[in-house]
Amino acid sequence: MQQSVQDAIDSCKPDKLIQIGGSGSKCILVAEGVADAYLFASPGTKKWDTCAGEAIIRALGGKMTDVFGEPIKYDADVAYPNKRGVLAAMRDFDFYVSKIPANIMDR
Asked: Can you give the pTM of this predicted structure?
């Protein structure tokens, strides 16, 4: 696991960590309430990895942004990689944004 991802996870002090492949799978766990948040503080995902999951989370009243709390942009002029990571939660979203470590926020 990349250090930035581990640092972001550690800063949230989770009771439990669920490791599963695929952005879509992570989004479904958040949408179903199995996971409290999906946090990936690295540029590893692409727009096609997150678009459907974000639509589901938003339709159910949750939120998905980059780790800085800024909307993920999907328009044609935007590069495919989610260079600023991914953060999704159904509730307490601002809590997770506030816990992102300074070394990640400063990059």
From this structure: 0.90
